Amino acid sequence: MALETGSWSRDVSLPAGVDVEVGQRVGAGTPLGRAPSRGTLLAVDVAGPLGIAPSHVTDVLRVTAGQQVASGTVLAEGRRSLRRRSILAPCNGVLQGTVAGCVLLRQTNVERSEFASLDALVSAVSATGDVTLQFTGTRLWGAWGCGEEIRGPLVMATSEADEELRWQHVGRHLRGAVLVGGWLRDGRAVQRAQQFGLAGLLVGGVDVALARRTQWPLPILATEGFGPLPMAATSFAALAPLAGYTLLLHPQCDEGRPYAAVAHVVTNRQPRPTMATAGAHVHLLRAPYLGQVGQVADLPTVARQTALGTREEGALVALPNGQRVFVPWANLELAH
Asked: First vs last Cα of the chain: how many Å apart?
C-alpha cells in the first residue's frame, strides 16, 4: 500500500556519543549524538611544484602508502631552480598512493552530528550507541526519487491531485519548503525551485525526460512513477490537511523504496518564547531572515497567514533595515 498512517521506527547508529535518553521526545532537527565520518580524499600536487614528470613522483616521496601523517609532514622533497622545495601534508591523514603526479591523502576520520529527521520518541538506546526513534504519522511510499534526504514545511502547490505542477507555482517566498503537486513535466519548475532554494518536490508522476536528468541536485520524489500520472487521491487528501507541518523527503532506496513522511505530533502553533513582549530583542531562525536580530514591534492577537500559506500565531518584528515582518513563534528565540 502506498499510503500508511500509524507508527514506524528507525535506528540511528551513534558510536561516537549519544545525547538523548530513552523516553525523551525530540523534535525535527534535535541533535541525537555523533557518528564517525570517513575523511575526504585529497589530491596533493607534487609533480607541478617540483617541476618533475608525474612518473618520477615516487622518486621524491618521503612517505609510503598506508602511512599515517600529521599536518605539516613532508610528503615529498626535491630541487627546483637550485632550491630545495618540500611538499607538506595539508592535514592529518593516511597516504593512499599516487596518481597523475599527485599524492592521494585520505583525511583522518572526523565526527559528524546526527539530527532527528522528524518529531519522534526515543524508544531504545543500546550500549553500543544504537538509538531507536519511534515516529507516529503518515508515510507515502514512492516509485522513483533522486537527491539527498531533506525536510521542510509542506506546501500544497496544486488544489487537485491531477493538476500539473508548473513553474508559476514556484516562488521565492517558498524557500526551504517541500512543494506538493499532482504531477511534474515542466523543467522550468525544477529550475525555479533550485534557484529559489526550495527543499524539494513531491509529485505523483514525473516526466521521463526530467527523470533522466540525474544532475538535478534538487530532491524530487514521485509516488506513482513516470509520465503524467496524478498523485493517488487518498495520498493527496492525506497531505492537504498537513500543510505547514515538517515533511521528510527520503528519495533514496536504502530502506526499500523512497518515501515521504509527516509526523502527526507536529503542531502549527507554537508557544511564544518566554517573556517575548513588545520591545524584546529576538533572533530570527528561518530564511530569508535567518541569523538576523530584530525587535518585537507588535503582538497580533489573532493568527496570520504566512508566506507558506499557513495560519500561525507570532510577532511583528522590526528589522535593523526598518522593515517589519510577521514571524511565527516557532521561528523566533529571545536574544540574550
From this structure: 49
Cell of 38: 570517513
Average pLDDT score over the chain: 86
* SS3 sequence of 222-234: EEEEECCCCCCHH
Is beta strand 17-18 parallel, antiparallel or unpaired with respect to 293-298? Answer: unpaired
Give the separation between CA 216 and CA 267, rounded to whole angstroms.
32
- 130-149 pLDDT, tens digit each: 999 999 889 999 999 988 89
State which amino acid sits at residue 330.
A
DSSP at 246: E
What are the grid coordinates assigned to 44, written together?
Answer: 596533493
Q: Which three cell numbers stand for residue 94?
A: 593516511
Nearest Cα neighbor of 65 from 99, 107, 94 is 94
State pLDDT tens for residues 237-268: 999 988 888 899 998 876 668 999 998 754 44
Q: Return the amino acid letter for 206.
A: V
Helix (H, G, I), strand (E, B) or coil at 214: coil
Count CB-CB contacts under 10 A for residue 31. 12
- Bridge partner list, 78: 85
Q: Which residue has the higher pLDDT, 9 or 304?
A: 9
DSSP states along 307-334: TTS-EE-EEEEE-TTS-EEEEEGGGEEE
- Three-class SS of residue 254? coil
Specify whether the backbone of 32 is left (phi greater than 0), alpha (psi in -120 to 50) or beta. Answer: alpha
* Predicted local confidence at residue 74, as pLDDT: 92
Bridging pattern class, strands 102-107 and 41-45 = antiparallel
Instruction: Round to whole Å and give the CA distance between 15 and 33.
Output: 9
Predicted confidence at residue 268, as pLDDT, reads: 40
- 54 vs 270, more confident: 54
pTM above 0.70, yes or no: no
Do residues 322 and 304 make contact, with C-beta atoms less than 8 angstroms apart? no
